[in-house]
């Protein structure tokens, strides 16, 4: 989710909180938009319309109300009590100092273990840890001046890579970052790979993909396609090669995790949401596990564990074991609003944001047992954004 849509989402969530729990949407098929978990700034109107359609209907819900087709598995072996220690992933907080104009608010503090960094004036997002600090985006609202940078613990910025860069993703080894250099309406766009330490371009490929968006980078390569809520063909490029592999045509979220070859895909079949864990095969995706359920009002956000063993589904609050199909209900407090992707600290624990109540909270959940413990809380006027470790 990009800067613009993140702030639109915050504003619309606040408005959705004024809708009673008994309210019904206007008959719009929520999941038909195929809205991705992460989006680009352009096209702005299309992005804003898509997220408004989904989020206006995402009224408060209880995780326990959704009943998946496959039964949850009780009595999973215990892995020990869940720690209440500080999150081992970075996160940012922002102060909602102008709720009537959500595009005018930006993250205030970055928290990472015992390190806290004040925003030095960045209009953009914190993406992930990287060598020398954290990977950030800059340049909003002028897309021609957008650029990736490394933020140091001292609050200094070191821009890297080309201007006009968007949707940055780290390489599997974390040493490089891939960005899209695309102009709205242009048919030929570039994928550029930059060395994080030197800031220099080390590889690039021109692709005939309008409104180019990158979905992630794992050992199979860099996943890309057109930024669109409609069906789009997804291609995969391995830097060093001149060829693109076809991964298939998708309408829903595609979650690519850099440390595993397992990706997750959200699709919609006969009124149900289906989340598939798959790997890239010779003829597209080879599905390893599919989990279908009748969706609640909110759309699903999906995360995959760093070793590919588990996927979590936000709108029904479950963790699915890819190998066995076992399902653990994440025992979050009743009334929890979990809209964003969870972020895994390790293969066994996922951190999720509860957006309910006057103050947002972070919970650590064991994906094997479903036990959840609160690990952080912010002030009532602050919003949490998680950052990839």
Plain-language structure description:
This protein is mainly β and 389 residues long. 7% of the residues lie in helices and 40% in strands. The protein has two helices and 28 strands. The longest helix is centred in the first third of the chain and has 14 residues, at 3-16. The radius of gyration is 20 Å and the shape is globular. Residues 2-78 have low confidence and may be disordered.
Secondary structure: elements and pairs:
Blueprint: H1 3-16, H2 44-56, E1 91-95, E2 109-112, E3 115-118, E4 126-130, E5 133-138, E6 147-151, E7 157-160, E8 165-170, E9 176-181, E10 189-195, E11 201-207, E12 212-218, E13 221-226, E14 232-237, E15 244-250, E16 254-256, E17 263-269, E18 272-281, E19 284-293, E20 302-304, E21 310-313, E22 318-321, E23 327-329, E24 343-346, E25 349-354, E26 361-366, E27 372-377, E28 382-386
Antiparallel strand pairs: 1-2, 1-28, 2-3, 4-5, 5-6, 6-7, 8-9, 9-10, 10-11, 12-13, 13-14, 14-15, 16-17, 17-18, 18-19, 20-21, 21-22, 22-23, 24-25, 25-26, 26-27
Helix pairs in contact: 1-2
Salient structural properties:
389 residues; single chain; four-stranded antiparallel beta sheet; globular; disordered N terminus
Element pattern in H and E: HHEEEEEEEEEEEEEEEEEEEEEEEEEEEE
Low-pLDDT sequence parts: 2-78
Distance between the termini: 17 Å
Question: For the largest beta sheet, what order do the strands appear in spatially?
Answer: 3-2-1-28
Largest sheet: 4 strands, antiparallel
| Radius of gyration, whole Å | 20 Å
Mean pLDDT: 82
Q: How does the helix and strand content classify structurally?
A: mainly beta
Shape: globular
Bin the helical content: under 10%
Q: How much strand content do the residues show?
A: 35-45%
Number of helices: 2
Number of strands: 28
